[in-house]
Every structure is written in C-alpha cells, then in structure tokens.
Amino acid sequence: MTVRFKTADVDGLKVFYREAGDATRPTVLLLHGFPSASHMFRDLIPELTSNYHVVAPDLPGFGMTEQPAREQFAYTFENIANVVDRFTEVLGLDHFAIYVFDYGAPVGFRIAVKHPDRITAIVTQNGNTYLQGVSEAFAPVQAYWKEPNQTNRDALRGFLAPETTLFQYTHGVADPSMVSPDGRNLDDHYLARTGNDEIQLDLLLDYQTNVALYETIQAYLREHQPPLLAIWGKNDPFFIPPGAEAFKRDVPAADIRFVDSGHFALETHAPEIGAAMREFLAKHVS
C-alpha cells in the first residue's frame, strides 16, 4: 500500500491531500475534524486501499493546506465546503462516498445537499447533524453565538490549548496508553501557527450556521436515502450517541454502530472501523 502526498491548486488555493489505492476503483473522500488534519486517517487508509481509491484533503486553515489571511479568505464552513467541492472537481471525482468526522460533517453534508447525485454512500464517525447529538460541552460556544463580543470570544481560547487537545484525544478511552501522542502534538503544532487562533475562533462562531442547516440536511437524507453508516465513539463528550441514533429517523435503513472510545475513535479502533466500512461499502458501492 502506497500513500502519496500531493498538493492541488484549487482556484489559486494550495490544498494538501493524501491519496492511496487504485484510482479506477470507487472513491472514498475522508474529511477530518477539529483541530486535526488528514493525518488522523493514517491508520484508516491502509484498511481501505485494497478495494477503494482513498482521498483525504486538509481543510483550509488546517494541516498542510494553505492558510490564507482572514482578510483574503473568510473562514466559514460554507467557504470551506466550496473549496472541498471544487477540490473534488479539480481531481475529477465525479462520484464518491464520504467519511465525515466532526468539522468534516458540515463540510461533507453541504456537498451532499448540493450534489446528491455525486454521493454514493455516507460514513459518519461522530459527525453530527441533529440537535440530539449536541452535548452541554457546547454551552460556552453557544454563549458566543448569542453574544458575539470579545469577552465571549476570548472565553473560547481554552478550546485551542494543548490541554484541550489532549482531552479530546483521551477522554472516554478505556486505556489512554493506546492513544499515540503523535496526532495531538501535530495538531497543537498547527494550532500554534501565527493567526490560526483567530481562524479557529471565527469557525467556532460560524458553527451556528451548521446547526441552522440541520433541518436542510435531514430533508436531504429523507429524500435521497443515501446508504449510511454511523459509527460512533460512544464516550464522545461533544457529539453524544443520540446524534448517531437520530439518523434512523430520516434513513430507516441506516447502520448504527458504537465503539468503546471517545471523540477521536480512530486512535483506538481504526481496525474495527475499517472492517465495518469495508462491509458497509461492499454492500452499497460498486
């Protein structure tokens, strides 16, 4: 299995991505979350490449993808989704399954709503689109939405601290020694880049647009009934299990599974999640 590390020019923006597998086979697009990048898929990609073409970009402002100044690029989920949408077109990806996690969910679901004909299947791993899935951990962020002043903005800077990254990686994990420090340390490196803190705070403010879009996404799911696997770290403190179970309301045939892990479930359960994906994709993606 060979992973190639590439950069695509997306309308002048340099987007870094990982690519593996035979490009003539069905494509799976992996979309990462906060505060990570495509490196979070380092253990999942080998689980898929025997049968699938796998592409994993870094979102704008994350990982190795270019980080334009806020004056040049508005860091909203709509803009990021537009970049990823164009990225798929630049690469010539006409049809693909999506794996969405955390921030990757509002990005991937926006693309699905815009291009339902391009989506062959959806795998959501702690990628929420239901109010039932939002935990009380979002209370400080919701306070910022209600009153977007500097005091409430500054109150969220703790979300960007190394201690919080460690918490995200290890909370709910039965044996924290299974969690490699490499991923979280790399995330902290990217968060520490000049100006990235303000980018992340912009996105935390804009996250309210994702919640506002939940009903639109749910309508898409009801109308198009995409094959859907929700595989969740059941101990996630941010996106809780009812968010996974809620997919059944709109896609009754959805496959709902849980693993005994936290938010970054791939850190401990990549083989199990990979096996579930192979089983699911074999049924629905030819």
Could you walk me through the main structural features you see in this protein, from its secondary elements to its overall organization?
- With 286 residues, the protein is α/β, with parallel strands linked by helices.
- It has a single domain (3-284), classed as Rossmann fold (3-Layer(aba) Sandwich), CATH 3.40.50.
- Helices cover 41% and strands 17% of the residues.
- An eight-stranded mixed beta sheet has the order 1-2-4-3-5-6-7-8, with helices on both faces.
- Helix 2 (77-90) packs across helix 3, helix 4 (139-146) packs across helix 8 and helix 6 runs antiparallel to helix 7 (181-191).
- The protein is globular, with a radius of gyration of 17 Å.
- The mean pLDDT is 97.
Q: How widely separated are the two ends?
A: 21 Å
Fraction in helix: 40-55%
Q: Note the beta-strand portion.
A: 15-25%
Mean pLDDT across the residues is: 97
Number of domains in the coordinates? 1
Order of helices and strands: EEEHEHEHEHHHHHHEHHEH
Quickly give the structural class: alpha/beta
Note the total helix count: 12
State the CATH architecture: 3-Layer(aba) Sandwich
Total beta-strand segments: 8
Largest sheet: 8 strands, mixed
Low-confidence runs of at least 5 consecutive residues: none
Shape estimate:
globular
Q: What order do the strands of the largest sheet run in, or round the barrel if closed?
A: 1-2-4-3-5-6-7-8
The name of the CATH topology is: Rossmann fold
